[in-house]
Amino acid sequence: MSKELIKKLGFNRIKLNEPLSEHTFIQAGGPADFYYEAKISEELKEAAKAAAAEKIPFVVIGAGGNILASDKGFRGLVIKNSSENIKFSPFDFVEVDSGVNNSELITAAKDRGLTGLERLIKVPGTVGGAIYMNAGDTAKSEFFGDLVETVAVLDQNGEVKKLGKEDCGFAYRTSRFQGSGEIILSASIQLKQATKEEIESKAKDVLVRKMNQPTGPSMGSIFKNPPGNFAGKLIDEAGLKGKEVGSAKISEKHANYIINEGSAKASDVKALVDLAKSEVKKKFGIDLQEEIRYVGEW
C-alpha cells in the first residue's frame, strides 16, 4: 500500500518518518509515517484521494498553529496544505485557497484598500484553519465565518462541493467541518473598501488588545471561553499560572496559553491541559473545552 502511495504522489515529494515537531507551532510531536506538502489545491485533492484509495489514514494540516501531535506520531499520511492562490474580484470579493497564511491574506487585502480581515491579526495559521475553527476577534465577536460567502470542500466520496455560509454551521469557535470529514479547499469571502487610515486604526486596536498574548512556541488559546466567563481567568484562579510539566509551562502572562520552554514533549503539554481541566472542574464545576486539535495516537 505504501509503495502505491509513494508512486502516486512522487518518491521525491513524500518524506518518511517526518518529525511533526518541525511542523507545529508548539514544536512537539513524533514522526508521521508519510508526510506530503500539497503546493496547490489540485495536489491537496489528489493526495487525499490517493490515501483513501490505498486505505491509508490521513490528516490535513495547515500551519500547525493549534495542533498537538502525539509523541508517538501519526500512523499514516500527514498532508500539509500549502495551496496559496488569492484572487481579488469585483465588488470586493476574494477567492482564497485554504492553505493561504492568514498574515499574507491580511497584507494582500490591506494593499488593495480592503478591510474586514483585521479580526485575524495575531491569529496564527491558514485560511483553512480560520474556517475550521471560525477564528477571529472574540472580544468584538467578529469571526471569520462572518466574511464567508461560500466554501469549496472535498467530501468523503472524493467529490468537490460548494457550500453556502448557511451550510457551514459557524458558531463560536466551531463549524460543521470539525465533524464532517470534509477537506476545506478554498473560500469566497467578501470584504469592504476602507481608507488606509481606517484599516490601520482597526489593526492598531486589535494589536493593543492582544498585547497580553505570550510569546514563544505555543498553540494559541488552549480552551474555548465558557459562556459568561474566560478560560484564562478560571485557570489563573485555580492557581495554575506558571505550573510546569517537563519543559511545558502554563504561561504566567496569560493562563490560557501553554508555552514550550525548550524541549517539551506532547505528553507534557497534554498533562497540563488535563490538569487545567480537572482543577477548574473541581474548583468551579465548569467543564473546559479544548479548541486545540489532537493529531496521532493518544
Overall form: globular
Q: How much of the polypeptide forms β-strand, as a percent range? A: 25-35%
| Continuous helix count | 8
Roughly how many Å apart are the termini?
Answer: 24 Å
Q: Roughly how many Å is the radius of gyration?
A: 19 Å
Helix content: 25-40%
The CATH class of the largest domain is identified as Alpha Beta
Which structural class do you get from the secondary structure elements?
Answer: alpha+beta
Mean pLDDT, nearest integer? Answer: 95
Query: What can be said about the biggest beta sheet?
Result: 5 strands, antiparallel
- Poorly predicted ranges: none
Write the CATH fold name of the largest domain: Uridine Diphospho-n-acetylenolpyruvylglucosamine Reductase, domain 3
**SSE topology string:** HEEHEEEEEHEHEEEEHEEHHEEEHE
Strand order of the largest sheet: 6-7-13-11-12
Q: In the residues, how many domains can be counted?
A: 3
The CATH level-2 architecture of the largest domain is identified as 2-Layer Sandwich
Q: How many strand segments?
A: 18
Catalytic activity: UDP-N-acetyl-alpha-D-muramate + NADP(+) = UDP-N-acetyl-3-O-(1-carboxyvinyl)-alpha-D-glucosamine + NADPH + H(+)
Family: Belongs to the MurB family.
GO molecular function, one term: FAD binding
Keywords: Cell cycle, Cell division, Cell shape, Cell wall biogenesis/degradation, Cytoplasm, FAD, Flavoprotein, NADP, Oxidoreductase, Peptidoglycan synthesis
Q: Quick gist of this model?
A:
The protein contains 8 helices and 18 strands. It has helices at 2-9, 41-53, 102-111, 127-133, 177-180, 196-209, 231-237, 266-284; strands at residues 14-19, 31-38, 58-61, 67-69, 74-81, 86-89, 93-97, 114-115, 136-137, 142-143, 148-154, 160-164, 183-190, 192-193, 244-245, 248-250, 258-260, 293-295.
